[in-house]
Structure formats: structure tokens, C-alpha cells
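[Discussion] Sanity-checking designs against the backbone

I'm trying to build intuition for which residues belong where. Below is a C-alpha cell string of 657 positions. I'd appreciate it if someone posts a full sequence so I can compare it with mine line by line.
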């Protein structure tokens, strides 16, 4: 995926005096007004990816606020040196959200380094290099953060990182040295003991920080979706946080024919189908002893004839017992996915108020643009969900779901209907109209076809991995969405190799091909862009939404950032999420332009823009340092797109001078 909880903004001097004289009273007031949904965290710190284990991304700090935001300046910049462009695959993506605990900043890099920094100067205290092999063709060459744990009876803090090459590593927080008692000299190989073993490094990755609840560390995985039916399997696993020993394994594709959900995999497909993995961030509720697991599509994404049925527990949020892995409940956001509509956003835990009751809720965002609010004890929707009839596939062998779940509230936050062809000039409009006119085009659940299908909102989302933030004081969910329609074609097996080869001869081709081995069809997809390079659907292409968490009402919606060469107010696709502060502010980066933005939480109005060395494909964080200043920190690594903001490796901190 960004607020004044008490309606008062203090200057730095007043804050220091109040902290000395009234710290106990202030803490009590803040706790009452912005009581966290899951756990209380020290107000200075940012101890987890989403700040608390439930991922609300809310900070009670107010030193940076709506009144003084114009004075926010760069305080320091740290360069990791880890920007890297492999010769034949995607570049690194510096997407980390740092942690701040015990007076130190901790974060990971795409190359598997973990770095500790001084929070005031940005100077390095230590770094650990896991020696990730650089040229293995990683599909998403990223690391989005590290995790931390300290037992109640020990002063020894542990930092955990899950590296892109699928190793779980435990480090001593004070030295950066591997913890010898964890796994094999501090390392657990996550590629071992899977139901379907990965064939190569690019088939099985780790990009998200693990979840920690009690003495269990819970890890999902990133699986390449479209190589074949039998991609690597997507088991979620719980390990002992001290020893690294495996405690439990949960497979999102049921293997016991008598298990709940097994009947949603027909013709023995459960045994041979891979993926359905949890590649996004897992949320946790210590009081309920539950972890909330967001899962993606089964393999392959765009043809399901080899996996007929609804395909539970793919494209779902699933509540598991943290200490045993037992499934408690599930909710599926897309049946028999044919669109790559993963639950890409981290689940977010908050309280919603309905009919005089306070309901513990979990919010779940899907790439299809729908956001579901569920009772986190039961998985039951807080707002009605209707099974709506959707267009059916015309591809021989495919059996698409007749219905898909649609929530009564919030409304769809990304366009669900086919937009009119758009262009910045008449030439572009005519080109886009001609291309769209060739395609099957019936809205959000238009099935892929041999003819070609126009898919809105497209496989980037909807709601991407950035996720949402929540402000208790305003009962507000802050949710970014993208609007970038795509074209998908299924290619008969006999024609696939030839078409892929021909496209490969054209340096300007923007088609992505995948074989989908084991099915009758390969796949080609692209984001539909005009000759000017702009989307063929009308802007805004990236939007930040403020949604009332009690009613589901859309309070405000504003463009985020600026699409390169697009018209003013076009908004940009955003890969990264928002944060919220008690200073009345929403902070958001992740756009294609090199900037971080601040918005007024009550109106959504943009009130500040901070320049970055390159674009930020990340979620920011904030903390109060030992010098009493509040800092805003964001990773700026570029988007790896030719002709746009360059590849980078900067961690940038802002503060009020």
C-alpha cells in the first residue's frame, strides 16, 4: 500500500517538552484514541513490515504533520551498491521496507544482503552477505523486507531474511552473524522437501518477509506461474523460530481426497498442479493464534482445463493456527482463476463497527479490484457477497466458473467494465480502437481466448502487492489500485514455438510468452499501449482510495503520481503501498515517477511531494530516532523499465530540519 488522531499538531520543541513532562499521560491518550487492531508497538519504532503484526501501517507519530509538511527535507541517503542488471533477465528491484527496533534500522537487498544502519546518520553499522547467485533468471528479483524476533526472557534479538534463492537465514541483530543454532549454521533451505520440486532458481523464490507469531516463523513462497501445469508446489510452512526445525506444512492444494476442498480439484489434478502459493506478506493475530495466508493462482494462470473445479484454496485468504498449521477457515476471492488474479495484497487486520458491534476484521484485496472485509474469527463476510454470473470460456477443454464473488461494499476500486478506447491524440485513439475491436471484451472476468481477450483491470492489478493501510481515528482504509488493461491470447500448441520465435526477432515486441506445458495452449500477454507508449484505457492509471472501514463507502479517490509522458493528473501504476500517521498524513510512493507523496487523510488532497534519485517501487516507513526527530524512509530502486527512471539502490530518509 497515510493522520491526526487527536486534531492537534505539535512542533518539535513542544513535542520534546511534552515527551519529558507528560509522556505517561500522552501515551495513555494515544493508546485510547488509536488503539491497535492486534498488538501495541513502541511508538518510536517500526518493528514489522506493516509496523504491527496485522499490517495496519499506522504510526502514532505527529512530529511530521499537515502543518509543517512543506519543510520536510532529505536528511540522509544510503547507497547499497546492490543495483544489478543480469544479461538475460530482469534487474534487481529494491523494494524493502526497513524495520526500526532497538535504535537500529534493518533491511534486506535483492542480492541477499542484510544491512544495519544508524537511524540518525544513515551510516552502516554492519552488513551480512548471503552470496546470492546473481544470474539465475529470477522472475521477480526483489526483497521486500526482513523480520525480527526476541524472546521475552532474552536480550538477544534475531533478524530473519528470506532470500530470493529461497533460503531462510537467522542473524544476530547486534553483529549480523548467522545464528549457529538455527538450521544449518543459521540457514534453512526452503527448496527442500516440497511436493513438486522446483526445476530451477527462477521457478521458486522468496521475496516477502516471513511472519512470526509466538515461537513460530511462517514462510510462503514465490512460484513462476506459467511454465507448466506442474510448477513447484506452494506449501506454506512453520518453523521453530529458535532452532529452524520444521513444525508443520500446509499445502494450499488439498492432497487428501477426503479433505475439505479436495472435491474442487477434478480428475486427479490436485496431485499434479503446482503454485497456488502465498508470495505476498502473511498477517498474524497473536490473540487468536492465527496467521492469515494470501494465496495466488494455480499453475498455469490462463488455462485451467487440467485443473477443473473451483480450485480451493488458491486465490484465497486462509486462516491457519500458527503453532500447528491447522486450517480454521478460508474465503476464496476468485474461483478457478484464469486471469492471474492473485490475492497479491497483504491481509490487513482492523476493527469495523456495524450495528452497534465491534467486529475484528481482516481486509483482503484482489488483483480483480475487489476488496473483501471479513470477520477474522470466522471468515464470514461483514458485507454481503453475491455470486454473480460471468462470461464463459469458448476455449475447447476449458470449464470456467459460472459465477464469481462480488462484495456489496466496498465498491469495485478498479474499473470492472470495458473502457472506451483512449489515446492522447487521434492516431493513438484509432490504433487502440482497432486493436481492442479484434478482441473478446466483456469486462473484468472476460475469459482468455484464442482470438485474444481484453482484460480489465489487468494482471498487475487492481490491487497489487503494496496493499492497504488503516487509520483507527478516521475508521479509514487507504487502498491503492492500478488501472492498466492487458491483452491475453491462448496459442494452440502447434503454433506456439513459431509465434514466440517470430516475436523474439522483433526488438520492439512487448509480448510476454509462456509455454504452459502440459496444456493444449501456450500464452502471450501484453499491456495494451498505443504507439505513444500510453495505455489504451483512459486515465487515471493509478489511484489512491480512502474507504470507510465501517460502511465500505468510498470517501475519496485521487490519482497517484504521474505516468511518464502522460497528461496531467494521469496517475501512475504503483508498486508499493501507503502508510498512515497520526500527523494527518498518508505517505505513498511506488509510482513510475521519482517521487514520494503526502496526502491529507481527510480529503485525499496531495499536499507534498519529495524528490527521489529514481522511482520508488516500495512502501515507506517512519520512526522517531534517538535525537527526537521523526524520520520518513523509502527505498528508491527504480522500476527497471527502459527509458524511465534508472535502476537505483538508494535508501532515502526525510526529516524536518
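Best answer:
Here's mine. Compare freely.
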Amino acid at each position: 500500500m497515510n493522520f491526526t488522531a487527536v486534531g492537534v499538531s505539535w512542533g518539535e520543541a513542544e513535542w520534546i517538552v511534552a515527551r519529558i513532562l507528560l509522556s505517561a499521560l500522552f501515551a495513555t491518550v494515544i493508546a485510547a484514541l488509536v488503539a491497535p487492531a492486534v498488538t501495541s508497538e513502541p511508538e518510536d519504532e517500526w518493528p514489522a513490515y506493516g509496523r504491527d503484526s496485522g499490517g495496519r501501517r499506522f504510526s502514532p507519530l505527529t512530529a511530521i504533520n499537515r502543518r509543517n509538511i512543506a519543510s520536510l527535507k532529505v536528511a540522509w541517503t544510503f547507497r547499497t551498491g546492490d543495483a544489478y542488471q543480469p544479461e538475460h533477465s530482469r534487474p534487481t528491484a529494491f523494494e524493502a521496507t526497513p524495520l526500526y527496533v532497538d535504535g537500529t534500522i534493518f533491511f534486506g537487498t535483492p542480492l541477499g544482503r542484510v544491512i544495519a544502519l544508524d537511524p540518525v546518520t544513515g551510516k552502516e553499522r554492519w552488513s551480512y552477505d548471503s552470496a546470492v547467485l546473481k544470474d539465475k533468471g529470477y522472475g521477480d528479483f526483489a526483497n521486500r523486507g526482513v523480520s525480527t524476533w526476541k524472546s521475552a526472557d532474552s536480550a538477544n534479538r534475531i533478524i530473519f531474511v528470506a532470500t530470493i534463492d529461497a533460503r531462510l537465514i537467522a542473524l544476530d541483530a547486534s553483529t549480523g552473524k548467522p545464528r549457529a543454532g538455527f538450521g544449518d549454521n543459521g540457514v534453512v533451505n526452503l527448496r527442500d522437501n516440497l511436493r513438486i520440486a522446483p526445476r530451477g532458481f527462477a521457478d521458486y523464490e522468496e521475496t516477502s518477509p516471513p511472519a512470526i507469531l509466538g515461537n513460530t516463523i511462517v514462510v510462503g513462497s514465490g512460484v513462476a506461474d506459467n511454465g507448466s501445469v506442474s510448477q513447484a508446489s506452494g506449501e506454506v510452512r512453520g518453523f521453530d523460530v529458535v532452532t529452524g526445525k520444521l513444525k508443520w506444512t500446509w499445502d494450499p492444494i488439498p492432497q487428501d481426497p477426503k479433505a475439505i476442498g479436495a472435491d474442487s480439484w477434478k480428475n486427479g489434478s490436485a496431485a499434479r498442479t503446482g503454485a497456488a502459493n502465498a508470495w505476498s506478506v502473511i498477517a498474524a493475530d497473536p490473540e487468536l493464534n492465527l496467521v492469515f495466508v494470501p494465496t495466488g493462482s494455480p499453475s498455469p494462470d490462463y488455462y485451467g482445463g487440467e485443473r477443473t473445479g473451483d480450485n480451493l484454496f488458491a486465490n484465497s485468504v486462509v486462516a491457519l493456527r500458527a503453532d500447528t498449521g491447522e486450517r480454521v477457515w478460508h474465503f476464496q476471492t476468485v474461483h478457478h482463476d484464469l486471469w492471474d488474479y492473485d490475492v497479491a495484497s497483504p491481509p490487513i487486520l482492523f476493527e469495523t463497527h456495524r450495528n452497534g458491534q465491534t467486529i475484528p476484521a481482516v481486509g483482503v484485496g484482489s488483483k480483480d479490484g475487489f476488496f473483501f472485509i471479513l470477520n477474522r474469527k470466522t471468515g464470514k463476510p461483514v458485507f454481503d457477497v453475491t455470486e454473480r454470473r460471468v462470461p464463459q470460456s469458448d476455449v475447447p477443454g476449458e470449464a470456467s466458473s459460472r459465477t464469481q464473488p462480488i462484495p456489496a461494499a466496498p465498491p469495485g476500486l478498479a474499473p470492472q467494465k470495458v473502457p472506451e478506447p483512449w489515446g492522447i491524440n487521434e492516431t493513438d485513439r484509432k490504433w487502440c480502437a482497432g486493436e481492442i475491436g479484434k478482441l473478446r471484451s466483456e469486462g473484468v472476468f472476460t475469459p482468455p481466448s484464442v482470438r485474444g481477450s481484453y482484460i480489465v483491470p489487468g494482471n498487475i492489478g487492481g490491487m497489487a502487492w503494496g496493499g492497504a493501510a488503516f487509520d483507527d481515528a478516521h475508521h479509514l482504509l487507504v487502498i491503492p489500485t492500478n488501472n492498466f488493461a492487458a491483452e491475453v491470447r491462448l496459442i494452440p500448441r502447434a503454433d506456439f514455438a513459431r509465434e514466440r520465435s517470430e516475436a523474439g526477432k522483433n526488438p520492439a515486441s512487448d509480448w510476454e510468452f509462456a509455454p504452459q506445458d502440459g496444456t493444449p495452449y501456450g500464452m502471450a500477454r501484453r499491456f495494451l499501449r498505443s504507439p505513444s507508449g500510453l495505455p489504451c484505457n483512459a486515465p487515471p492509471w493509478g489511484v489512491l482510495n480512502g474507504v470507510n472501514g465501517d460502511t465500505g463507502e468510498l470517501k475519496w479517490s485521487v490519482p497517484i503520481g504521474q505516468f511518464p509522458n502522460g497528461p496531467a493528473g494521469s496517475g501512475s501504476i504503483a508498486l508499493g503501498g501507503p502508510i498512515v500517521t497520526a500527523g494527518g498524513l498518508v505517505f505513498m510512493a511506488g509510482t513510475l515517477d521519482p517521487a514520494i507523496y503526502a496526502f491529507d487523510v481527510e480529503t485525499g488532497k496531495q499536499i507534498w511531494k519529495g524528490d527521489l534519485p529514481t522511482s520508488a517501487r516500495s512502501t515507506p516507513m517512519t520512526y522517531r530516532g534517538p535525537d527526537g526527530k521523526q524520520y520518513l524512509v523509502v527505498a528508491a530502486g527504480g522500476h527497471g523499465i527502459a527509458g524511465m527512471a534508472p535502476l537505483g539502490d538508494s535508501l532515502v530518509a526525510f526529516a524536518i530540519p
